[in-house]
What does this fold into?
Amino acid sequence: MVRTTLRDSIGKLIEVLGSEETEKIIKYIVSTSSYEETIDKKDISYLRLRSNKSFETHKIIMLLNHYHKYLLLTEEYIATQLDQINEEHRNHRKSKDQESTVDLKFFSFKAEQKRLQTYFPNILRTSLFIALCSFLEDVIKNGINSHKSNHKFKKLEEKGNIESAKIILIKEIKIKDIEKLKWDYFINLFRIRNDLVHNGGKINNSRKVDLEAYKISKDENEYLVLSKEALDFIFKESIEFIEQFSSLVIMDL
It folds into this structure.
């Protein structure tokens, strides 16, 4: 009974102070040994578990934010380098009075321009997109495997990993409100990921996916085109999803 009251009290604190401030209070209680004389050992164990799970959740969100920040900083660096070589090329053409002629410097410029406009951004965005999907998949699987219900993740027949996780959480573990998360958004996100990994970026599994919902386009040959805006948007959606997932699954004590 005391333990239930403690959990209710923590719930009220979260409502009033927010989860971040509440977790600071819990960490203080756990780190103060004198409290162990007045609080039941089961409650101390619960507080320690909650503190550990809170740290785990904050670490996951922090890593996602690092991925996102890396994307933005690298995109900014590439754009700066492109501006720089464009300016150098303009100055070179003016100094040589060769506005309408082609020299070796011009071909060198066009090659570098192609790298910075196309190759480098494509490598960056595709790599981060695939890494993000792998990270999300691990968080979801580990969330199921470490849940108090002792369920273990298993891929269901003819289902992808994210769809399998959704079914396990809703039908087997029966996490309250878990069905309200944007599962379809991420199930389709992984269809896009599979085309990038297994089909060289050409549309196949993602043919029926509404690419506009991800701000992703396709070129004339039906290859997926990932823009900076697309990745920025997908990262924000992913962070929001994992925050909700963590609250409902990882913090379900």
Remarks:
- The helical segments are 2-17, 19-31, 41-96, 104-145, 161-172, 183-198, 228-250.
- The chain is about 70% helix and 0% strand.
